[in-house]
Hints:
glycoprotein; 49% helix; 15 helices; MAB21L/cGLR
Amino acid sequence: xxxxxxxxxxxTAGIFRVCLVVVTAIINHxxxxxxxxxxxxxxxxxxxxxxxxxxxxxxxxxxxxEEEVARLEEEKEALKxxxxxxxxxxxxxxxxxxxxxxxxxxxxxxxxxxxxxxDSIPPDSPGEEDDLHSPRITxxxxxLPDKVTLSHFYERCIRGTTGDAVRTREFVEGxxxxxxxxxxxxxxxxxxxxxxxxxxxxxxxxxxxxxxxxLCDLFVPFTPxxxxxxxxxxxxxxxxxxxxxxxxxxxxxxxxxxxxxVNCICDKTKLGEDLLCLLHSKNQKIxxxxxxEDLLCLxxxxxxxxxxxMKWFQTALTRAWQRISRKYEFDLAFGHLDTPxxxxxxxxSGKFIPFNLIPVVQCEDSDLYFVSHFPRGRPVGxxxxxxxxxxxxxxxxxxxxxxxxxxxxxxxCHLSCLQIASFLLTKQNRLTGVSGxxxxxxxTALFHLLxxxxxxxxxxxxxxxxxxxxxxxLEKSLLEKKLCHFFVGNQKVPNxxxxxxxxxxxxxxxxxxxxxxxxxxxxxxxxxxxxxxKNASTxxxxxxxxxxxxxxxxxxxxxxx
Length: 561
């Protein structure tokens, strides 16, 4: 095939053009031939200006970035320093808490040891007691009477009341026997409460009564008619916490005799005339529609009401006296309107003999009794509820004094100390009014001292020392606002006393608890106590002025012996 000449020329020209373009590109490449002598374009200044502006923006951004980094570093350092300070503070606080806890534990151990130590050793040594001329114990700088003055005072003002107390007890007991027998005869045995024999309690039956007129306190137990029974509920058996003002009190629930057994349907189903209930006899048949108020309970409540009991008791006593009044040549009257059991025998000569009949409910099978009212007024801090009855240990207190007297030396001074202290308290209450301190607190303090000291320390020649111990114990208890009940929670009480175990194992009961809640009462009681100590020496000396000289010398000789 033959090629045309024009086509050959055309191909040659195309190849030439391509080669020319390649050579031109290679020659103008900046790497091979830099533009050293090239001319500056006209917009170079504008480009430079833009580059400088961009550079300034970059510098500003860099500065802001550096400032932000510096700020973050500072915050990091601050957080690190705060964490270190917090750690050091927590370590210091932990160390302080551990040290405080350790100090508290050590303090409590020392206090417990101190209490045990004070309870185990006598307050003073016997050598000081035997010295007639030893310095007297003072209470805040107050001197109490010496041994000879106390002996004179006791012989003149206290010992003579013992014979009168015996004669008064015999007369009152004989009359009360007759009065209660008449009361039983006027009561309906099927519907009224059943009255049992009285029980003598208190200072007249413990042989330390000094205040006149001589006053007998007699417990009169009563029980409900069949088929009912009393179910006492005391504070120390409660599963929930009991308020402080209710500790030492209990409620008395009125229930059926067979309440714990299987319910009987004889009161719900009409039995035929030929059918009898094997659980209830005719006399014990449950009365339909019987109201708890008829059983002296609080309205809409199964608990025995003290106010209802006292109204019933006063009415029953009035009816009983009307039946037997013609047998006697004296009159019987109620002593106080607010205490129906406070009675007074009035003779035609103008003389009178007061006594208290107190309805009580026995606590299970023990010698504990729930007291319906207080002959000398409600104690401080007593609950206002009429269904909470005070639990009295008066019978156990009488038994304890009998038991401890047998173990003490003959003519021991324990009752003399209580009589003198009670005399001072009575006189002080008449001067400044009744305070929160009572003769029951004095007796409780004496009971604690009787177990703390050996029997030989209660000889008659130690009367002054033991009286000082008693008053010192009271002062310490007042300052600490703590005087523990002698029987409740006291493991030192002999087992032969027969105290129910639930009370022996209970938490100790603080008789001075009202002082913690009532500051004004506490301050008045403390002031009255120290005022009593200030007046003690003068009062005892005045009552001992008119003792014959020969009698005084013989007493002094007997005291020295």
